User: What shape does this take?
Amino acid sequence: MTALVREFGATVRALREALSWSQEQLAEYAGLNRSYVGEIERGSAIASIVTADKLARALNVPVGTLLCAPLTVDAPA
Amino acid sequence: MTALVREFGATVRALREALSWSQEQLAEYAGLNRSYVGEIERGSAIASIVTADKLARALNVPVGTLLCAPLTVDAPA
Assistant: This one.
């Protein structure tokens, strides 16, 4: 598992948790399978650019945000 | 083929051509198969985030650049 894949998953998880969403909710909003979202977050599945785009749209962030440096996410105030 | 996949391919091609590289050269620098680079540029293959990262590193651009709005690339002066 590359650092990129691990960081991508960690970023998706951090953004999801900052929104207080479950994996089920993120999967539904992104039009993905719930277990696949779990695999992506754990870094055990490598997302395609289409999946990355779906996740970014659901999380309302530019897709580049999911692929760049590890993200420190402040929980909403 | 989604617009994202088509635009990703077009952006990779535009950046490669702006560097006057052949597909062989880009494939070599990115550690990818030449025919796969061709499929990606034509939008007939969907890159993973790992492939997108390899291409971005080879082209020396942030990976987000390959995934965001269609890119108009000025040939080097």
About this structure: The radius of gyration of chain A is 11 Å. The helical segments of chain A are 3-18, 23-30, 34-42, 49-59, 63-67.
